[in-house]
Write a structure and sequence with these properties.
By secondary structure, the protein is mostly helical. Helix content is 62%, strand content 12%. It has a three-stranded antiparallel sheet with strand order 1-3-2. It comes from Paragemmobacter aquarius.
Length: 117
């Protein structure tokens, strides 16, 4: 991995947990206070803070503190490397399937053209 490439492993690790994905979904509507994020989860605040730390270390959210209130905001641009990686994988597999389809069609045509089956 190049030095300045985003760490996909950190992003996929952060996205692997359903609680963190739920937090990101809620943040997609706009910035929220940590207490607003923790309420619906039913989790204790230290657990919520650990989830938020994982999201922040992956670059998926940014936090700001104003007095005693910490606010979290999603960083949608941080998902671009994931989208690019998935697009590359999809293109690779589509090309492989196209080559397999061509090969199978050639075999079928050769079998149909063979006068001595």
């Amino acid at each position: 991995m190049a030095k300045h490439e985003p760490d996909l492993s950190l992003i996929f690790h952060a996205l692997s947990d359903p609680t963190r994905r739920t937090m990101l979904t809620r943040l997609a509507t706009g910035p929220l206070r940590v207490t607003d994020l923790s309420g619906p989860t039913g989790l204790r605040l230290p657990t919520v803070m650990r989830h938020l730390a994982v999201l922040q270390s992956a670059g998926l959210i940014a936090t700001a503190k104003d007095g005693r209130v910490r606010t979290c905001a999603i960083r949608p641009e941080s998902l671009a490397p994931v989208r690019h990686w998935l697009d590359d994988q999809r293109a690779l597999w589509e090309a492989r399937l196209d080559r397999l389809d061509t090969y199978v069609m050639t075999l079928m045509k050769d079998r149909d053209d063979d006068p001595h089956p």
